[in-house]
Amino acid sequence: MKERFHHLFSVISGKRFLQKQGLGNEVPFFICPFKPEESVEMEQLQKQLVNRLEQSGVRVLEINLYDLSVKLLKEREIWEQILDVEQSTSKAELKELLQGVLDPETHLVPAVASQIKSTEFDVMFISGVGQVFPYIRSHNVLNNLQSTAKEKPTVMFFPGDYTHSLESGASLDLFGRLHDDKYYRAFNIFHCEV
After folding, report:
1. What are the percentages of helix, strand and coil residues in the chain, rounded to 5?
2. Using N-to-C axis directions, what is the helix angle for 79-86 and 65-75, rounded to 10°?
3. What's the confidence (pLDDT) of residue 9?
4. Helix-helix angle 109-118:65-75, to 10 degrees
């Protein structure tokens, strides 16, 4: 973890990263993949990284998708209703309900956009990806963020693999098992130059 911390800090605090150099016309989205069994350690690493970056003058906007989802459900006064129906509703029906009320395009990304507009920051961190699966899919979040979050770099902490191959293209494989979807417009942050 120490090596990963140093790599992440060096990349994210660097002028090249913060000024989005070397990206061509690509959106400044970066995936920070990690093994699902390292979730606790990665959460600690992320907190340390935010503290260290802030001390170095790099402002971080943190978005936890799970916390944001709960906040949105409470704001719309449907949190209690969902808790009430959870046990008596099938998983498929609950998933469909949550996908509708937390749709990235109509609900989640506008909430992120609101935070982007009201916060001064240099880089945005997105976490909680595994906690919101399957009702929010990471590729849907990234696709819908493309027009909203293109001014500053975004790092998504992803419990799984982000792979590129000539045969299958790029894919997000949640938990190293679930093929989330093809997503081409992000960079693996561990492949970025320091």
Report:
1. 50, 20, 30
2. 100
3. 95
4. 100
Residue 187: count of CB within 10 angstroms of its CB: 20
Predicted TM-score (pTM) of the model is 0.90
Q: Which two tokens stand for residue 156?
A: 């998504």
pLDDT of residue 183: 56
Residues 67 and 93: their CA atoms lie apart, in Å, by 22
Tokens at 178, concatenated: 């679930």
Q: What tokens appear for 18 in the block?
A: 């913060």
Q: How many CA atoms lie within 13 A of 180 on its CB side?
A: 29
CA dist., res. 28 & res. 26, Å (int): 6
Q: Which residue has the higher pLDDT, 36 or 54?
A: 54
Classify 13 as helix, strand or coil.
Answer: coil
